[in-house]
């Protein structure tokens, strides 16, 4: 192999990085992505500062946020030179963040700078940040109300779903009577039960909790019963041979063996619960993110609507990250098998 061939090969030689169990391949010629990521947000900040605006908006909260974001990216890039784990994460996400920065810059130009997209349906990012800055107290209170409602309904729905799933997956009689009920009720969206819930329960809060319980109960119960049913019978037969009783078979073999399926049901339940939460809070609630969206939409202030949606996305991402951490701890015996 000639010297020129070796140089070409060295330029295309892949760098293999692992991120959350995934194999990520990055070519050496693309190692500038973290720098381009920083440049893209410097560009966004430059667009916000130097290009004259056509819309009336307070740019200061937005520009402060962009400044802190740039400092954060620079800091992580510097730390990545000393820590391999940070380097893997930085290189894995750099292209995505770069693309987001370009999209934000284009959006700012089309809205705040050139006013090409019509208001109030297409507010600029700066207007969204202005809404968050102006209504931060209301948004904090609304987020707290929504989290209280979500956690209460999610906890009750998960417990009932686990109990129902174990009964269906373990006992034939329970399967005979309950599984048709799950199939009949589970396919109906929880929001379709709003009129019934408002009639049965004395307050809108209890009706909202009931709707979230209902939408979480079905996927958890179904996936729990499916997970128990998929456990190989040889495990139970071996335990019975050693003298294991029914309680041991259920709590030491059936439920632990069904944990991967149970977590799949929990993830599905959380996703549906968020959608149900927002819809249910639009009817009769006095606080919450769903109430805030409905209130802002009534005034045609879509910047506030998008602000609440961003907060919802952040809260949902945090909750899912916590659930993934819990799953990794509970299923540590499956390390290397989960993706």
What is this entry, summarized?
With 339 residues, the chain is mostly helical.
Highlighted features:
MetI-like fold, single chain, MetI-like, two-stranded antiparallel sheet, 2 domains, 339 residues, disordered N terminus, NitT/TauT family transport system permease protein, transmembrane helix, flat, 75% helix, MetI-like_sf, 2 strands, mainly alpha
Overall description:
- There is one protein chain.
- The protein is mainly α.
- It folds into two domains: 110 residues, no CATH class; 199 residues, MetI-like fold (Orthogonal Bundle).
- Helices cover 75% and strands 4% of the residues.
- It contains 14 helices and two strands, in the order H-E-E-H-H-H-H-H-H-H-H-H-H-H-H-H.
- Strands 1-2 form a two-stranded antiparallel ribbon.
- A hairpin with a 2-residue loop joins strand 1 and strand 2.
- Helix 12 packs antiparallel against helix 14.
- The longest helix has 35 residues.
- The two termini are 39 Å apart.
Task: Report the sheet-strand fraction.
Answer: under 5%
- What's the domain count? 2
Say what the CATH topology of the largest domain is: MetI-like fold
Q: State the end-to-end CA separation.
A: 39 Å
Strand order of the largest sheet: 1-2
Number of strands: 2
Query: How does the major sheet shape up?
Result: 2 strands, antiparallel
Task: Note the overall shape.
Answer: flat
The first-level CATH class of the largest domain is given as Mainly Alpha
Count of separate DSSP helical elements: 14
Average per-residue pLDDT, rounded, comes to 85
Show unreliable segments.
1-29
Helix amount: over 70%
Q: Which H/E pattern describes the elements?
A: HEEHHHHHHHHHHHHH
The CATH homologous superfamily of the largest domain corresponds to MetI-like
Structural class: mainly alpha
**Rg on CA atoms, Å:** 26 Å
CATH architect. name of the largest domain: Orthogonal Bundle
